[in-house]
């Protein structure tokens, strides 16, 4: 889904991480506990942030101000670096950038739009002091500019969070002293900080001395990817880091000694970090040690002296030996505890640090775990996430959907860290406020909440969808509970179908007892060896096999009975019953077995829903081989053969079946075809086959057996990936029309169209495909037409609406550029499927989104009216736990809650819910029962389902539903 920025060479970080240390010499902080504690509360947390939480956004001076040589500003090392031919950058420069020096008022209005309570920005050292020397006279134009900005922010009730140094060192200091390689800069920075505190500190409560010194030391002075482009290697990076830490400490002491009492502010330093996990969850002691070293090599390098014991982590001292600078005892005291809170940067620049990490480690986007590590490692400090965000490509423009969801992920992880893990996070700055000059990526990469068109002189700020989303989160103070998280009390009606659904039964249609089919007479133990031997000439009478001979049926259905379910859905095997696809060879043994299953269900007072055709990808799509060879569902021959097959099954099994499903998930079956034309033709023939099978039952059997006949559609909900974009809303509706409307409209029409519209595809679908054909220069769309006779045959051929619902999909329009570049033909609906990273996922990455069930039920009910009952014929989730399957239990409860809301609050004519499935036979493990070595064991979800069924839902009194008893069985088909 995402592509990480490509580094131009191997970062020094990898050397620090991978070279390791002697285990006996390494000591690890309490941060190791972060990998030992299980992750709890992985589901989405509907809650608000603490009162007064400091929502904000931020920028840096060099990236946004522009005016690089205006009003007395001196050049910075970055000005020199991007203008230098040696830098090998694009033609982009930050000479104008976002023009925030001139358009700062527009930036403030952007903050007002967001509704944030803070703004993190940096002062430009070379703008205030062109030669870098704070002992001299400041540039008054710069002082005036920052004073105006701070005063305007305060007038808007926005807290200024001011960074002294965000990488733009005066070039004069680089030329005169060699930059941060020289300890002279420690004193110069102290003087610069004192000036800033004295000049602006009366109106500033939060100061940040410098931003992400790791990248300055490594990228700027180690490998030369950043300004000043120094390639001094490991030794130089270590010296630079040492000086940066001491410079920060000096600045903190200046504030503490001379300004804190009067200004009552706080000072910290922004430290950047990645996060790593042991690969594949292998939390061995060695792997955790390696992860701890990785964190110490990046974040701990700077955090341990400041928040720890005043010195470097032992792992770094052991690793680098004599190269590692050392703090004297006095310096340790000067450095230790020089931060009033922990300021953290978490974004793509930091995540790239781990691209080459190996030896059992995986880099992940887990801000929650990182915050937990900081809590354990550094004594539970107050934390400000001073930079949190991701990036998009410039071509994305205003529609930054992926960045929006990653913002949601990071903010939600912060909420979890606060509410669940007890981390004291007091603020979050979404990075960045506006698009700017993204260092070595120039303008190709964008991180702003507001889009800036750098080709236009006015640099207009336009809110991206991420800005609209952030505004909504800020206004709500997080993710408060709403109707999605609210539980309702109530019961489903007595005639509600509580079901369990399975696929094709494992047919063992030979009788268990051979004595009833073998006429020979046997004697036992004739020679003392305990064997049976035939008696010569001895013959006995036999009887046909009885249902009692199939011992596995009673045992299997006993599991079903123990769930408390009233209904059971299973599929027949078409290719087993009619191997040739016609009546030339009928497998009566298989039909007898199915009859026995159905009779046993009746004995247990359970109703049957039988699926005639359950497509499978394993063998011939589940078709008899001759039909598959002859073209399968692209051939009308298969339509006629299905009618014959259905008629046989009705005649042989009809007395014991209450519901028939002709075809299971035809909308998933058509996905196997490679071209859109074949997909449309297969769907066309599947619809005709269903209609013919339905009419056979109505003509020949309905008056006697009164079963209802339908087809079952895979019906996951489609949510607009970006709710702020009309194109995404249209794509989601289009997806639903192609998935469901394609099959339901021809059979039911819609409540808006009237009776005359039955027998045709959705008009919206036809219109869209015709427009697509015109754009591609084609004569017409590839969607087939029904004849008048076919329309007549199709209309009204559903006894109920059957939906298989499992999850929710995020849907966006298919990008035009993607469609032209990819070799594969885009889907006819031209929709892309995305995923919300905050959704809880199963082992096979099925998202747990219970609210989607209610939405799909309402969509179907609104489009097709409430006359026909709706049954959820399959719904479930894989859970790898063999006993206490908490994920499945949460799925059951939450999805049935949404079903109850749809029925009770929305008036949906919902009359059944079937849980998929009874027993595990193979992965993925969806079963209510586990099966190991032919022994079945109930999972905890069985008890939960049984209790919900017994109560008829979620009643206030928690009592058993009085109308259900062994002698009273629902007969919904008489409704």
UniProtKB/TrEMBL annotation:
Molecular function terms, GO-annotated: hydrolase activity, hydrolyzing O-glycosyl compounds
Cleaved signal peptide residues: 1-26
Membrane topology annotation: Single-pass membrane protein
GO biological process, one term: carbohydrate metabolic process
Record's GO cellular component terms: plasma membrane
Aminoacyl-tRNA synthetase is among the record's keywords: no
Compartment(s) of residence: Cell membrane
Protein keywords: Cell membrane, Glycoprotein, Membrane, Repeat, Signal, Transmembrane, Transmembrane helix
Membrane-spanning ranges: none
Superkingdom field: Eukaryota
Pfam families to which the protein is assigned, alphabetical: Glyco_hydro_1 (PF00232)
Keyword Membrane in record: yes
Family per similarity comment: Belongs to the glycosyl hydrolase 1 family. Klotho subfamily.
Name of the molecule in the record: Beta-klotho
Organism: Takifugu bimaculatus
